[in-house]
């Protein structure tokens, strides 16, 4: 593939489709298990609410342990090579779930699974940043992350259907198949010529924090941490919450409403980012997410939950691609892998800490209080975004004007 093809303005190329579908199947596996493994821990293994959250947290622990190195590995050894290698481990971890009926063993598999996911998601996101046209990066990354949103639609619903119909064997077997699809699609991907000699992009140097973390991506990554902290309450506890409300059948429809709004808004989100300002997405997105979370905490009927899912989906659909694209945009071109790794490191830390801490809040109070606390926590993302990104951006403008 020639470089000219990448800058020609076309997003929907064969490599882009292969990459997006590979990412879709990886996230489908993730969302299937994220909403059902807590139920497996509770109903089959007899686990507590804290242990239900722990099965999510330890997935993130494995993710976080490898995420700081993943960006450097991707830039150093090659994006496709690291994508294929990590997805192969992802497939092996999916295989190891079958027949695992002890909590300690399950948690070990979760760590391995999370580690491979951390490297794979960094590699695929960095590839996406390379193969979409520079002039349409916000739109292209938005479409790429849309496939994750589609997985968010199908994954929880499919996981719950399989769990309710056939139990863990059908659930874990399907997870194994979709992880294999992700690996095979990544293997079929043809990379741009400049990615075939990655050692030229990042020479061998000693390990330092600057080689593990992209500092320019830190402000938006911290905002992503807070968003993920709050979002973890949905995947970890929504199923149990709806059972408590005697609305168990609404869970899959909640996630469908959540993700459908993400998909429907995605074309507009990318164009707003490219043509106007990220601020037009960040602040409204935060407000919508808070409103939806408050509505979840006060829900009395299934319709209230569905409305909350739609509102939160619109907010989350604006925030995630905005933050992700901004992290890569702020970094030098040769450090997009590090920027991607930095963003997802903080995002995953927020997701892991959130599922555990909010689980403790739910155990000490109730689910309504926990969701209300999650809505308040999201406010911190607006503060972080303004103080460390928006205000800093405003302070640079007079300096640039004076220099001109």
Describe the overall structure.
The chain has one domain (3-192, 214-403): Growth Hormone, Chain: A (Up-down Bundle), CATH 1.20.1250. It is 81% helix and 0% strand. It has 13 helices and no strands. Helix 2 (14-43) packs antiparallel against helix 5 and helix 5 packs antiparallel against helix 12 (336-364). InterPro entries: MFS, MFS_dom, MFS_Exporter, MFS_trans_sf. Keywords: Membrane, Transmembrane, Transmembrane helix, Transport. GO terms for molecular function: transmembrane transporter activity.
Topology (SSEs and partners):
Layout: H1 3-6, H2 14-43, H3 49-77, H4 79-96, H5 103-131, H6 137-166, H7 168-188, H8 218-244, H9 251-275, H10 279-297, H11 302-330, H12 336-364, H13 367-403
Helix pairs in contact: 2-3, 2-5, 2-6, 2-7, 2-8, 3-4, 3-5, 3-12, 4-5, 4-7, 5-12, 6-7, 6-9, 6-11, 8-11, 8-12, 8-13, 9-11, 10-11, 10-13, 11-12, 12-13
GO molecular function: transmembrane transporter activity
Keywords: Membrane, Transmembrane, Transmembrane helix, Transport
Transmembrane segments: 12-32, 52-70, 82-101, 141-163, 169-189, 217-238, 250-268, 280-297, 303-323, 343-363, 369-388
């Amino acid at each position: 593939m020639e470089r000219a093809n990448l800058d020609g303005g076309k997003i929907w190329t064969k490599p882009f489709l292969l990459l997006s579908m590979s990412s879709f199947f990886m996230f489908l596996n993730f969302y299937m298990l994220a909403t059902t493994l807590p139920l497996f821990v509770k109903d089959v293994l007899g686990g507590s609410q804290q242990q239900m959250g722990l099965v999510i947290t330890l997935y993130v622990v494995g993710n976080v342990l490898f995420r700081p190195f993943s960006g450097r590995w991707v830039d150093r050894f090659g994006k496709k090579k690291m994508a294929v290698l990590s997805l192969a481990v992802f497939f092996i971890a999916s295989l190891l779930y079958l027949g695992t009926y002890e909590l300690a063993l399950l948690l070990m598999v979760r760590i391995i699974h999370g580690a491979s996911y951390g490297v794979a998601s960094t590699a695929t996101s960095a590839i996406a940043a390379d193969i979409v046209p520079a002039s349409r990066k916000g739109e292209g990354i938005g479409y790429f992350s849309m496939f994750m949103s589609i997985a968010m639609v199908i994954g929880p619903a499919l996981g719950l259907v399989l769990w309710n119909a056939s139990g863990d064997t059908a659930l874990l077997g399907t997870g194994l198949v979709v992880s294999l699809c992700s690996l095979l699609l990544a293997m079929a991907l043809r990379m741009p010529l400049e990615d075939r000699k990655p050692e030229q992009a990042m020479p061998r140097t000693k390990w330092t924090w600057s080689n593990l973390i992209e500092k320019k991506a830190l402000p938006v990554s911290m905002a992503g941490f807070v968003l993920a902290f709050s979002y973890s309450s949905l995947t970890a506890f929504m199923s149990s919450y709806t059972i408590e409300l005697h609305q168990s059948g609404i869970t899959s429809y909640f996630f469908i409403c959540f993700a459908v709004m993400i998909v429907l808004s995605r074309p507009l989100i990318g164009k707003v980012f490219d043509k106007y300002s990220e601020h037009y997405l960040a602040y409204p997105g935060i407000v919508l997410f808070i409103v939806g979370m408050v509505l979840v905490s006060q829900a009395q009927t299934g319709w209230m939950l569905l409305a909350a899912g739609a509102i939160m989906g619109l907010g989350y659909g604006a925030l995630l691609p905005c933050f992700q694209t901004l992290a890569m945009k702020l970094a030098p071109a040769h450090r997009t892998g590090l920027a991607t790794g930095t963003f997802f490191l903080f995002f995953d830390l927020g997701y892991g800490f959130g599922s555990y801490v909010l689980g403790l809040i739910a155990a000490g109070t109730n689910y309504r209080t926990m969701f209300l606390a999650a809505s308040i926590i999201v406010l911190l993302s607006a503060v972080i975004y303004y103080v460390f990104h928006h205000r800093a951006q405003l302070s640079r403008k007079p300096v640039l004007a004076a220099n001109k």
